[in-house]
Design a protein that fits this description.
mainly alpha
Length: 151
């Protein structure tokens, strides 16, 4: 359990465990979001390099005939390598997008459950009055909004 969560007052261990679980889900979502963005930029960069290479080696050399362009494209093994890498990067980008979406859904569902069950987590009158302190800690340290269900 992370230190700011462990040091929370007016919360029982079950609540602290739930808060720690939502923190872990948020970290997982942030990690996949970062990987997805990196894969997007990597795919765009690789595809751009491939198009530049293709222009320099095939299109600018044989602009007069499509058959000659196609023949030059097929004869150069670097084109196949670039093409396979570009398609592979695009596939990897889509896999990471799927993982990111799944992690976001898990995080959002758990966060909404905590918001819905806040009366159970902070049952006594004193805990209910001081729950905003817990919400502020979660917002400040982890950027997790527990005030309402909307993103």
């Amino acid at each position: 359990m992370d230190t700011p969560i462990r040091l929370l007052e007016n919360t029982d261990e079950a609540t602290k465990q739930a808060l720690d679980n939502v923190r872990k889900r948020k970290e997982k979502f942030d990690k996949f979001e970062r990987y997805h963005k990196q894969s997007i930029w990597g795919t765009v960069l690789l595809a751009s390099l491939f198009l530049i290479y293709l222009y320099m080696t095939v299109i600018s050399v044989y602009p007069y005939s499509f058959a000659e362009m196609f023949s030059a494209f097929v004869n150069d093994s670097n084109n196949l390598t670039f093409l396979v890498l570009s398609v592979g990067m695009y596939g990897g980008m889509n896999v990471l997008r799927t993982k990111k979406d799944k992690a976001e859904k898990e995080y959002h569902e758990l966060r909404c459950e905590i918001v819905d069950r806040s009366k159970d987590f902070w049952g006594s009158e004193e805990q209910w009055k001081n729950r905003h302190l817990v919400f502020e800690v979660m917002k400040k340290h982890y950027d997790i909004n527990l005030y309402h269900e909307k993103k």
